[in-house]
Amino acid sequence: MRTKSNYVGIDVGKDNLDFAVAGIEKITRFDNRASGIEALIRQIDHLQPKLIAVEASGGYEATFVEALMVKGHQVSVVNPTRIRALAKAKGLLAKTDEIDAQNIANYAAIIRPEPTKLREDLDQRIRALIIRREQLVDIRSAERNRLGTCHESTKEDIQEHLDWLGQQITHLETEIKQLVKGSEVWSRQIGLLETMPGVGFLTAVTLTANMPELGTLNRQKIAALAGLAPYNRDSGKKRGKRRIFGGRQSVRRVMYMAALSAMRYNPVIKKFYERLIENGKPFKVAITACMRKMITILNVMVKKQTGWVCPV
After folding, report:
1. What is the pTM of this model?
2. Biggest CA-to-CA distance, the chain
3. Which of 36, 64, 128, 170 has a 20 to 30 Å separation from 10 between CA atoms?
4. Rounded to 10 degrees, what is the CA torsion of 162, 129, 56, 116?
5. Nearest to 69 by CA among 54, 91, 47
6. Rg of the chain's alpha carbons, rounded to an integer?
7. Averaged pLDDT in 10-residue chunks for the chain of 312 residues
């Protein structure tokens, strides 16, 4: 089994890591703790696989993936939706941890996704703060909704929580800005993205943290990665509506807010949006198209390392 042609799949859970090799039905389970991770990496070191596919599991995979990358292994963190889609295409409808691990290994062997790049410590710290800010913003939105319908006796408590959330979000934003200032690479990238009218600091820093591929992919791939590429839903004579699918929710969220601003202050996006509306496109379709146009322009800006230039 000591060959570079092996493809490995890891199904990640809160407590366990299930290990499988493409073409071999045997599944091995390890604890998702330091001792289990060390034992699994020793086995992987001996196997020397060409690629290790690890299912994205809400952060439970982070420690393991980083440890693999430090050891020099080629690792790809993959979207579980795509793994299930391939399994269904092959007629594999059952779902257990053992089956999932084998499906992930098969996905690695067939699709051969691009390896994920190792993040520097600063990247990880900034990304963690961005994720935490997004979590608090979601909680604040939920509390604001409750404030409008709650009983009078609970309004004061909810308002106090809202005030606290606002303070914490401001504190996190300040901390993010301080970390960015301390990095020439981050400052240059964010400064470049902010030259586009409509793109503010939070949009720029979220894109930098959550889309490191910006500037390295073509426009179709970068749009798909952001979840802004429309997919056909056609069958026979039926022509369904094209819909966006998957992608990175955090990127899509900040691009939505950026597009709202750009539709007013960015002459290119404003003109593009107005033309879509004049042609009878619904608001949701028009703003999604604006988001897609913006992310593809930003992709070119990063690739060429040139700031926004407004056409005459």
Report:
1. 0.67
2. 68
3. 128
4. 160
5. 54
6. 22
7. 70 91 88 91 91 86 85 87 80 70 90 80 85 93 92 93 96 94 91 96 93 88 83 47 63 93 95 95 93 95 91 58
Tokens representing 235 are: 């069958």
Element counts in the chain: helices (H) and strands (E) = 12, 9
**Domain boundaries of the chain, sorted by first residue:** 7-111, 121-182, 183-312
Question: What is the C-alpha separation between 9 and 105, in angstroms, rounded?
Answer: 4
Yes or no: domain 7-111 corresponds to CATH 3.30.420.10: yes
Q: Which two tokens stand for residue 98?
A: 């053992």
